[in-house]
Amino acid sequence: DAKARYVKFHWKPTCGVSCLMDDEATLVGGKNHSHATQDLYDSIAAGNFPEWKLFVQVIDPEEEERFDFDPLDDTKTWPEDEVPLRPVG
């Protein structure tokens, strides 16, 4: 149908997400300040190309009032249990 919708887009890496603890970040950053870029180059050179999947969350503007926050506020995350992620690509 031709109704307006509110949509949030999510790009999720297929390789998952990993984070460094504070002490690890200090150590790694001290040795190579562009370690993430280096990791990307190394992964591509090894044939492990970066890949993401696209998901959307969609709500009807009439549903806006059911949230205890402004869903149009970019700093807010829509709860996935109420507005599930839909794979689109």
Automatic annotation (TrEMBL):
InterPro entries: Catalase (IPR018028), Catalase_core (IPR011614), Catalase_sf (IPR020835). Pfam families: Catalase. GO terms for molecular function: catalase activity; heme binding. Its EC number is 1.11.1.6. Residues 3-89 form the Catalase core domain. It is an enzyme of class 1 (oxidoreductase). It comes from the Eukaryota. GO terms for cellular component: peroxisome; plasma membrane. Coiled coil: none annotated. One of its GO terms (biological process) is response to hydrogen peroxide. PANTHER family: CATALASE (PTHR11465), CATALASE ISOZYME A (PTHR11465:SF45). This is Catalase. It comes from Oryza rufipogon (Brownbeard rice). The gene is catA2.
